[in-house]
Amino acid sequence: MSRSDFDRYDGKNTSALEGPSSDGSAVLHAPLSNPLTGHGNFCRKLRQVSNGSAGTTIFSIGSGVSSGAFIDVDNSKAISLRYWARSRSEDDVQCGNAMGVANRYYHTTSNANPIENWVGTGMRFGSVLIHGTGRNANNLLRVALWSKANENSNDNTGNTETVFVTNPLTASPWLHDTWYRLRYDFIPTGTLAYEQRAYIFTSGDEEVDANWTLIGNKITSSLNADYVPIGSGQRVGFYYANTCYRDYVGEHYIDAFDARISNIP
After folding, report:
1. Domain boundary assignment for the chain
2. Average pLDDT over all residues of the chain
3. Count of alpha carbons within 13 angstroms of residue 254, beta-carbon side
4. What is the mean pLDDT of residues 7-14?
5. CA distance 23 to 245
6. I need a labelling partner for 227 at 20 to 30 A (CA). Which of 78, 84, 177, 233 fits?
């Protein structure tokens, strides 16, 4: 997909990203350590401008893609999002940041929280927490599945995440300056529940499910406070989140974002 296939949404008080039109920067693979090969010459760097405000920037798939199939997806459809993700080594241990994919998210109009005014579900790669302030200990990288039914990220009620601290392929922590091919599946189970799954690609053909290793899953039902129901204006896409108000901003990279939608048998 190209930039024109996405609509950008900035959370309250969110500062712009570096790059043309504040959309991030196209950077060459080759100069990066452990560069990604076989996927073109460029990737997209997501980094907030220095001395900016904390917040989230979301790039949602627009109405021009697949005749708007990724807008207001109902419970008869499953979503699969695949992307290469990378986080740069960080010196700051006071802030958290992450990038990831979002699904079933929509913008709210309340002013309950000065930073966030959206809810949804998704998967993140980074050090930021979905609720509370800032980072996890020492800015260690994590993969997490989350469900955010409360726009106020500082309120644990209705905002939960299931965190995976190790890469199942190596049984060791996730590494900075390393590319990972990640996959997020969102599968409604009936009309009042959904399952989220996180995978990492091993090798071979991506179309073969056996070549994806399950990182973990998260099941949410309408009985849970973090359940996000079907609603009008819900979108699918990828995002960058930063919790810093100072000149400490995380740097993440994304490439080969691929979105798929299918009927649930």
Report:
1. 3-263
2. 84
3. 27
4. 72
5. 19
6. 84
Tokens 């799954």 locate to: 197
Report residue 226 as tokens: 């973090």
CA 122 from centre of chain: 6
Which one-letter DSSP state was computed for residue 16?
Answer: P
Domain range 3-263, its CATH number among 2.60.120, 3.30.70, 2.40.50, 3.40.50: 2.60.120
Rg (CA), the chain: 17
CB 51 within 8 A of CB 262: no
Instruction: Please tell me the distance from the alpha carbon of residue 143 to that of residue 81, in angstroms, as a whole number.
Output: 15
Does residue 211 sit in helix, strand or coil?
helix
What residues contact residue 231 under an 8 Å CB cut-off, 6+ apart? 104, 106
pLDDT, one tens digit per residue, over 12-57 is 656 677 777 778 889 999 999 999 998 899 999 988 776 666 678 8
Task: List, in sequence order, every residue forming a beta bridge with 217; answer none if it has no partner.
Answer: 197
The more confidently predicted of residues 203 and 244 is 203
Query: Which residues is 55 bridged to in the sheet?
Result: 242
Burial class (CB in 10 A: 0-12, 13-18, 19+), 151: buried
DSSP per residue over 123-191, as a string? EEEESB-SSSSSBSGGG--EEEEEEE--S-TT--TTEEEEEE-EETTTTEE--TT--EEEEEEEEE-SS
